[in-house]
């Protein structure tokens, strides 16, 4: 039996507030945590298959062109080498998220530097690595025709621009205005676990253990790449060591491993090196953004413009949605929002955590700070003053928006009232001290999802879906929803994930996993509750379940197992409906941070940071807090350290590992405070929850940048704000504080 819901009408029953088990929302530990800590959770590269060969990918040494000839003979004579593969079915590019089909194939055509063009397979990894380094490939080099830097002159609109009113007149008439240009570099997902796959065939059937985020789409992508029916593809991905968008779609290692395994008639493992992941999997596009804001003497926006230039490979439709939050966050009846895309010869640009808002909001929030200074209005107050009643230009209402509460709660907890509006007002030894603020906002999506729940005859709950857990807490959250709905202790709940033969969950990406697949679990449990109510002789809405017992008003409690003669299995299925169009159902928050800037070296140190967030029902306070913290760390990296550096002569990535691509480390991050603002948003999902995974990054870098200005009086519009950029603009280090 399947309980299905196309979500057209808000569910206002507050069902999870009426249940009595008391596990939903609690900061419960992740059930798989001990396995990960003990090293017994098996990741993709760790699956031991009998007689498994090892494959190593070989990257192109030209920027663009064609493979003319692969000289295999020398390599094939090397110890242990089993084969050299370069097929028209091997991928040139990784698939974009939710593609559901093969991306560009035929590796004989080179699209970007270090694109995988061949796979060397040997008995051992060391033999394959040695042979891959020795492989001689002849190319037809067409790099002379390549473009390695974005060019505004040849950029095309990524989508229809959003226009309203007379922007130019509004800017001319504004009492206060800013017209600013910002640049942000490309970013890498930099997940802890590299991309890996182990492929094994049994006749026509392929089993592949992979590091993947969205198995429903990945099955279709892999099958399409190989030219086989999806029913012959079985993907297993129970544990994933981070993804951040890089593992949304199928990529080179999986297809290459499958091709080689088929040819050799034995399992093949392909693990990308850290450098290969950086060089050939998704990057976040660099951006150039122009932001124009105009307001009256009261600080209320009358003009709002946000334009961006981004890039991607020729033929790729994805463009970083830089203005995504600008569409709904602040007022301004005279508007222009536009993104243009330039085709360049760099690895594919795609979804990296919080695509759009992550880089768009950090620029917007600096611009809002500069406007606040121009008006003499406190930056918190200016933001509150410019929250529209409905989405500008659309008339769409907001389902819920706790931004004012986030700003107020964050300001109170942080001590914002102690901030001086004058830069360079506070000095401690050789350090200038400053505070900054920024809003957070992120679009919310309800995605199609399916889950199966079984209440066994002995009272155990089993949740099954192909949904993945990429370190976000899916095992915990889905178990909590089921345990709460069915009145069973969490210890009697088992969650099975990451197997494509299970019902199709939403997958981990876009911050939609918990609320979407969680809603499917919720619906499956509702169907089970209806059957139990019938057996108990009461209405479903009157059924009470707690600690393995069932009762209703006037009905004596009975063990749930007394109502079961056999296992009771139901499937829940959720699909987005009209509500997605009727209301804007985004998530919101606010960041407050304090930094110290060295007066002599320009080094910036984050001293403390507070984030307050509202995202519907909190399903697990511990995992939600962890997600917010992780997002804030990403924002700190975007503000201070992270930058993909490409050689402008040939487009190759220069800093392709964690030694040179500087993600924040423990020493960079002080104690951080997270405030979770509980709310219920019945428009967002049946469980009244929204996504939180990416909210914590959206705007965080802007708060850091604003704090730097408040500390030392230097406004930079080029991220990251490294010491070399600050140093030339710092005030006299021997001058006293203002």
Structure description:
The protein has 738 residues and is an alpha+beta fold. The protein is 24% helix and 25% strand. The chain is built from 17 helices and 31 strands. A seven-stranded mixed beta sheet has the order 4-6-2-15-12-13-14, with helices on both faces. Strands 8, 9, 10, 17, 18 and 19 form a six-stranded mixed beta sheet that branches.
Question: Any key phrases for this structure?
Answer:
738 residues, alpha+beta, Aldehyde Oxidoreductase, domain 4, 3 domains, 7-stranded mixed beta sheet, 6-stranded mixed beta sheet, 17 helices, 31 strands, globular, Ald_Oxase/Xan_DH_a/b_sf
Reading off the top of the CATH hierarchy, the class of the largest domain is best stated as Alpha Beta
User: Percent of residues in helical segments?
Assistant: 10-25%
Rg, rounded, reads: 27 Å
CATH topology of the largest domain, anyone?
Aldehyde Oxidoreductase, domain 4
Shape by Cα distribution:
globular
Question: Strand pairing plus helix content: what structural class?
Answer: alpha+beta
The major β-sheet equals: 7 strands, mixed
The neighbouring-strand order within the major sheet is 4-6-2-15-12-13-14
Biased composition (Basic and acidic residues): 10-20
GO molecular function, one term: oxidoreductase activity
Organism: Paracoccus haeundaensis
Pfam families: Ald_Xan_dh_C, MoCoBD_1, MoCoBD_2
Sequence-ordered SSE layout with sheet pairings:
Layout: E1 2-7, H1 15-18, H2 33-38, E2 53-59, E3 65-71, H3 73-76, E4 81-85, E5 109-110, E6 116-122, H4 125-134, E7 136-141, E8 156-157, E9 162-164, H5 167-173, E10 176-184, E11 187-188, E12 196-202, E13 205-210, H6 215-226, E14 233-236, H7 252-264, E15 268-271, H8 274-280, E16 283-284, E17 287-295, E18 301-312, E19 334-343, H9 357-375, H10 379-385, H11 403-414, E20 427-428, E21 431-442, E22 449-455, E23 461-464, H12 474-486, E24 493-496, H13 513-536, E25 544-546, E26 549-552, E27 555-559, E28 568-576, H14 579-582, E29 587-598, E30 604-614, H15 621-640, E31 672-676, H16 700-712, H17 723-727
Helix pairs in contact: 9-16, 12-13, 15-16
């Amino acid at each position: 039996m399947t309980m299905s819901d196309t979500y057209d009408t808000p569910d206002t029953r507050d069902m999870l507030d009426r249940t009595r088990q008391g596990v939903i929302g609690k900061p419960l530990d992740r059930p798989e945590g001990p396995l990960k800590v003990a090293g017994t959770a098996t990741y993709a590269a760790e699956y031991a298959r009998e007689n498994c060969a090892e494959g190593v990918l070989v990257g192109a040494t030209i920027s663009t062109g064609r493979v003319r000839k692969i000289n295999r003979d020398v390599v094939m004579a090397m110890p242990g080498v089993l084969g050299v593969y370069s097929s028209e079915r091997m991928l040139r590019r990784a698939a974009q998220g939710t593609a559901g089909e093969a991306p560009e194939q035929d590796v004989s055509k080179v699209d970007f530097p270090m694109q995988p063009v061949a796979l060397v397979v040997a008995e051992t990894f060391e033999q394959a690595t040695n042979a891959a380094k020795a492989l001689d490939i002849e190319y037809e080099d067409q790099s002379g025709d390549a473009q390695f830097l974005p060019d505004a002159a040849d950029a095309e609109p990524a989508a229809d621009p959003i226009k309203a009113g007379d922007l130019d007149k509004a800017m001319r008439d504004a009492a206060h205005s800013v017209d600013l240009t910002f640049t942000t570099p490309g970013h890498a997902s930099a997940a802890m676990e590299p991309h890996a796959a182990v492929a094994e065939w049994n006749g026509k059937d392929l089993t592949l253990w992979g590091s993947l985020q969205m198995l429903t789409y990945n099955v279709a992508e892999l099958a399409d790449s190989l030219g086989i029916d999806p029913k012959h593809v079985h993907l297993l991905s129970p544990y994933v060591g981070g993804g951040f968008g890089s593992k949304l779609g199928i990529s080179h290692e999986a297809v290459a491993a499958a091709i080689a395994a088929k040819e050799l008639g034995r399992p093949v493992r392909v693990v990308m090196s850290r450098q290969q992941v950086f060089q050939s999997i998704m990057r976040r596009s660099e951006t150039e953004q122009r932001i124009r804001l105009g307001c009256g003497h009261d600080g209320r926006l009358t003009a709002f413009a946000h334009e961006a230039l981004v890039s991607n490979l020729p033929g790729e439709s994805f463009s970083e949605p830089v203005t995504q939050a600008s569409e709904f966050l602040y007022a301004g009846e005279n508007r222009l929002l536009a993104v243009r895309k330039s085709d360049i010869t760099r690895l594919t640009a795609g979804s990296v955590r919080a695509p759009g808002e992550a880089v768009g909001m950090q620029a917007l929030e600096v611009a809002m700070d500069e406007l606040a200074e121009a008006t003499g209005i406190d930056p918190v107050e200016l933001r509150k003053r410019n929250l529209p009643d409905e989405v500008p230009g659309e008339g769409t209402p907001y389902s819920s928006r706790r931004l004012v509460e986030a700003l107020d709660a964050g300001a109170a907890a942080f001590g914002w009232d102690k901030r001086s509006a004058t830069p360079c007002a506070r000095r401690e030894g050789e350090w200038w001290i400053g505070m900054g603020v920024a809003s957070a906002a992120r679009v919310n999506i309800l995605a199609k999802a399916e889950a199966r729940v079984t209440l066994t005859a002995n009272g155990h709950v089993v949740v099954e879906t192909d949904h993945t857990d990429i370190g976000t807490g899916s095992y915990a959250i889905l178990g909590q929803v089921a345990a709460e709905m069915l009145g069973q202790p969490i210890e009697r709940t088992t969650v099975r994930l990451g197997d494509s033969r299970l019902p199709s969950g939403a997958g981990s990406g876009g911050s939609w996993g918990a609320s979407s697949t969680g809603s499917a679990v919720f619906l499956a449990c509702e169907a089970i509750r209806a059957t139990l109510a019938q057996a108990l002789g009461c209405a479903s809405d009157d059924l009470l379940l707690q600690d393995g017992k069932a009762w209703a008003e006037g009905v004596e409690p009975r063990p749930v197992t007394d109502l079961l003669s056999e296992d009771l299995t139901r499937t829940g299925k959720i699909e987005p409906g009209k509500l997605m169009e009727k209301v804007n159902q985004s998530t919101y928050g606010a960041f407050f941070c304090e930094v110290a800037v060295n007066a002599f070296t320009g080094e910036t140190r984050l001293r403390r940071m507070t984030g307050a967030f509202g995202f519907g029902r909190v399903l697990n306070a511990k995992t939600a807090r962890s997600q917010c913290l992780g997002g804030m760390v990403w924002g700190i990296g975007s503000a201070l350290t992270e930058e993909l550096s490409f050689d402008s002569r040939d487009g190759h990535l220069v800093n392709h590992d964690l030694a040179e691509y500087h993600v924040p480390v423990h020493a960079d991050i002080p104690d951080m405070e997270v405030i979770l603002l509980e709310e219920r948003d019945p428009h967002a999902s049946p469980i009244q929850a929204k996504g939180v995974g990416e909210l914590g990054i959206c705007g965080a870098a802007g708060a850091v940048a604003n704090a730097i200005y408040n500390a030392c009086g230097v406004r930079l519009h080029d991220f990251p704000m490294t010491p070399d950029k600050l140093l030339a603009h710092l005030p006299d280090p021997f001058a006293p504080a203002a």
